[in-house]
Design a protein that fits this description.
Rossmann fold, 4 domains, six-stranded parallel β-sheet, 24 helices, 23 strands, about 20% strand
Length: about 625
């Protein structure tokens, strides 16, 4: 303790942890600690100093030990998403490979605008012992470290080269994590020697502070202009993105759509903004969307895009809309609001929707337009009914498909159960076939489309879910490819008593990319296991046996009926339960609902099928909007 009562002598690591533990957040339930804890794998770069500091605050900031640095950070991301960006967790790794393992996770958080605090070991600030274990030397720049690699995937980046720098840097990092517009990963490089250096910190730095998520009101002039344009619309449509959930605007979106009789379509990130049977919910839009949403979007004359960054899978690479359609964007992030010469309304979605509704007054879209939307909606629902059915029209059994698996799980899950998936074929199949029973219950990581997020993300989501909805389940849908890439958090979930229900859909490799390969005229090559460079016969992995070896309960099923029975057993189980099954790699895909998608194809090829595919792709380009 310093002799000056206005200061306290601490190491930099101790000060970091103590300040973090003193931060709180206002939520609908009152006041909670802002940081939900952290995920840590210790090494020589973070165990002796940061580890010592974390031990002292292990009750205030619970630490979970993962099995892989990348998956730990993914779990932290899923936790923050479940908490609607109102709380976050950190992930810490040692210097070297532990740190670089988390680059991919930082990119996920950056792309999806999600808070993630990364605390990573670094080389010595003094450079006296250089080169040290795991240091990557740069001959012409001794200041350069592997931690610099995170600059391209961080919203905020700093290297703490003196303990006093923490006084400025840590509060700014926290502010970044809480900023609705600039939210994303904050990265602090922590040199190994500086972590243990002592400094007389002002006691005020450790006073409890309660934060509030800022709600940015839109400019009134932008609201007036947007309302004036929307009033001219004969065929308006709302694109509802993930930002609606972070704003807590799902309910007001529903009221807005009803008051002004405007059809709503959802992005992948915005799935579960409305329940599936809402009369104006016309389904998912885009490349992996629905016939109903895409038919409406193609005819719309004014598009109101709320809380979406308008990714190419939403816009069909900007072919989903008429060239003459006018675009209004509502987004708290100026960067996202200003895309494609839109009329931007920069501000919080909940506030903007309310003000826009007031400005619209008695405006209502015509019943002929909503009748058209309802007809399309009914036709799509009928298609999904057939798509998820385990039987053909003639009564014969069909091979199991993703859609059938999704339909079976969807039918039996509770309204507040959370489904988590990512990458591969499942995002498209969930987007098209999942029927939302309760808002905010779907997490499809498709912003960065990262394989391996599923089980790790499920673990993080489950930690968050148990804090507020302990009676519900977290359901993970994962393909065999992603499972083999990153499955170790099955063990984590068992060790920490964070039960998951994991459905493993085995189609013998990377089947969705094989489908893309075939659809562009190419021969199956290096995607399905049987088409890879292997010595010997391909064989199916016994996923059940593998999961049981990590402490989970598991079984393998061969029919949809058996899947339903197994799922009910999984619901009743008290620990992680894995159900594996084989799905059709070729004919089991949802074939309707797709828009054009720009994908690079060879202009020159020896294969006529490839040349034909290239010509087809180029023909589809005629409807592409060029920034207007």
């Amino acid at each position: 303790m310093s002799s000056d009562t206005r200061t306290i002598r601490l190491t930099m690591a101790q000060a970091l942890v103590r300040h973090l533990a003193a931060q709180f957040i206002e939520t609908g339930d009152g006041r909670e600690r802002l940081c939900g804890g952290g995920f840590a794998i210790f090494g020589h770069g973070n165990v002796t100093c940061l580890g010592e500091a974390l031990y002292e605050f292990r009750k205030e900031l619970p630490i979970w030990r993962g099995q892989n640095e990348q998956s730990m950070a993914m779990a932290a991301i899923a936790y923050a998403k479940q908490k609607l960006r109102r709380r976050f967790m950190f992930a810490t790794a040692s210097a070297g490979p532990g740190t670089t393992n988390m680059l991919t996770s930082a990119a996920i958080a950056h792309t999806n605008r999600l808070p993630l605090l990364l605390l990573c070991g670094d080389s010595y600030a003094t450079r006296l012992p250089d080169p040290v274990l795991q240091q990557v030397e740069h001959f012409g720049n001794p200041t350069l470290s592997v931690t610099d690699a995170f600059k391209s995937v961080s919203r905020y980046w700093d290297r703490i080269s003196h303990p006093a720098q923490l006084l400025q840097s840590l509060p700014v990092a926290i502010a970044t994590l809480l900023d609705p517009a600039d939210c994303g990963p904050a990265f602090l490089a922590l040199p190994q020697d500086v972590q243990g250096w002592a400094y007389d910190y002002p006691v005020e730095f450790f006073a409890e502070r309660t934060h509030r998520i800022r709600r940015q009101p839109p400019d009134g002039r932008d609201i007036v202009e947007a309302a004036a344009l929307l009033k001219t619309a004969e065929r308006p449509v709302i694109i509802a993105g993930g930002g609606i959930q972070y704003s807590g605007a799902a309910e007001i979106l529903s009221h807005f759509a009803e008051a002004h009789n405007i059809p709503v379509v959802e992005t992948i990130a915005g799935r579960a903004n409305l329940v599936f049977d809402h009369r104006l919910n016309c389904g998912p839009i885009g490349v992996t969307g629905s016939n109903s949403a895409n038919a409406i979007a193609a005819k719309a004359d004014v598009i109101l895009a709320i809380g979406t960054r308008l990714q190419d899978f939403t816009t069909g690479s900007w072919t989903a809309f008429s060239r003459d359609a006018r675009l209004i964007t509502v987004n708290v992030c100026r960067f996202d609001a200003g895309k494609h010469l839109a009329l931007p309304v920069v501000g919080d979605a909940r506030l903007a929707i309310g003000e826009l509704s007031t400005a619209l007054g008695r405006y209502s879209a015509s019943t002929s337009w909503t009748d058209f939307a309802s007809t399309e909606q009914a036709a799509w629902n009928a298609y999904v009914d057939e798509n998820i059915s385990p039987r053909d029209r003639d009564g014969g059994n069909r091979p199991m498909s993703y859609a059938q698996v999704i339909g079976a799980v969807n039918a039996l899950c509770d309204p507040r159960d959370r489904v988590v998936t990512a990458a591969g074929g499942l995002p498209a199949e969930v987007a098209a076939n999942w029927r939302t029973k309760s808002p905010g219950t779907v997490d499809v990581e498709f912003g960065y489309s990262c394989m391996g997020y599923e089980i790790a993300g499920g673990w993080g989501a489950r930690i968050a879910q148990l804090e507020s909805e302990p009676s519900n389940d977290t359901i993970v849908l994962v393909g065999d490819g992603s499972y083999l890439l990153l499955n170790s958090d099955i063990y984590s979930s068992v060790l920490t008593a964070k039960k998951l229900i994991i459905i493993v859909c085995d189609n013998g490799g990377f089947a969705v990319i094989n489908k893309l390969q075939n659809n562009t005229g190419n021969i199956s090559f290096n995607n399905l296991i049987k088409d890879c460079n292997i010595e010997g016969e391909p064989f199916a992995v016994d996923f059940g046996a593998h999961a049981r070896s990590m402490g989970a309960e598991a079984e393998t099923v061969t029919s949809i009926t058996a899947l339903k029975e197994a799922f009910l057993r999984a619901k009743a189980a008290t620990r992680t339960y894995v159900i594996s099954l084989q799905v059709d790699a070729f004919d089991g895909w949802t074939t309707e609902g797709h828009t054009w998608w720009e994908v690079g194809t060879p202009a020159v090829s020896n294969r006529p099928e490839v040349r034909h595919s290239h010509e087809s792709v180029e023909r589809g380009r005629k409807n592409q909007r060029a920034g207007i």
